[in-house]
Amino acid sequence: MLSFQTCRKIATIEMTANFQKSFIAVHVGAGYHSIAMTDEYKVACQNACLAGLAKLDAGEHALEGAAAAVAVLEDDPITNAGTGSNLNLHGNVECDASIMDGERLLFGAVGALSGVKNPISVAKEVVKEQIKGQMSLGRVPPSVLVGNGALKWARDHDIGVVSGSDMISQKALSAYRKHKQRLMEVEQEARLSAKRSKLDADVEDIVNTPEDSLLESIISTPDESLLDTVGVVCMDANGNICSASSSGGIALKHPGRVGQTGTFGSGCWAQNGNTDTASVACCTTGCGEHLMRTLLAKECFDSLTGSDNASLAISTVFKNKFLESPMLNGVKFKLGGALVIKCWGHDDVELVWAHTTKSMCIGYMVSGDKKGKTVMSRLSDTSVAGISLSVGGKHFHT
Questions:
Q1: Model confidence over 357-377: pLDDT tens digits?
Q2: pTM score, two decimals?
Q3: What are residue 255's DSSP bridge partners?
Q4: How far is residue 303's CA from residue 320's CA, in Å, rounded to a whole number?
């Protein structure tokens, strides 16, 4: 049975007659966040909100505000994005990042990128190149770049490149050694088992375990290094919205693997509204393969545009399009989260978050706030990660 925790609070904010307020919300991932480190996660959210809102209040476009907030989270080694990201199977950092401009409906992303401190800056430049239109000889500007191609793009656009080792934190290295040791033990046991049984089979076929085995391990043994993707949704003073996401991916991922953050419709979505429809922005977090199969970011957008109740819409889409999605048949634990805003101009903003993981940390801020407000959302003690759902939110009438 699915268990739903839903909370919804109303916040009323005064606004001067001649100033349109900006809004930003961030998250540091849906996964597991220890109680001991809760304050550190909340501070990371507040710092990101401050950086993003400073851009928005200076009159800059939502694209710049979202990228600035994500860059702060990438620089913070407590997150699984940029510096401090999970290490892949070979012990290297490979990052994904994406951003979507709700005004122009342009999407830019990078995947499996090494050597760039702020992958979101490369994704932003991909969008800005699209804004310019066709390239020389009528070439179509890219939307997604990966690996060495993304790294060359960064160099060509004067984005600083660093050594891969400079992005490895001690926390990530310690986690990698622990997971690598466990993997070696599993592989050794498989070889011994094969030898004892005199099986004439390829070790790779024996070693590969079902998807749920790893997820069950994540759930039963909480580890802050295994999941998490940071994300931002925001609205600028002109009512334009943007969504952005950045991730180091799941621990021990195969080199070259790209998660939902680097794929269209899965990691983030943003679309300005008009006189008849609201503006909506969404970013997702969790197990990338689950989010890609279900196109969760786009599903959240579709659900929100067809409902007058954002919290109910997100609850419904998580239940019908994620937890009970036929695309995830056979997957026992579905790990995902989302942060969304629905805006009717500047005078009605609804913020909603949802997660099936043990916890999710959120921060948000409105023009005029001295610092961001934060929430550490957790499943109840009787809920089961990957099966249960928590939904929360706030409604701002400006």
A1: 999 999 999 999 999 999 999
A2: 0.90
A3: none
A4: 11
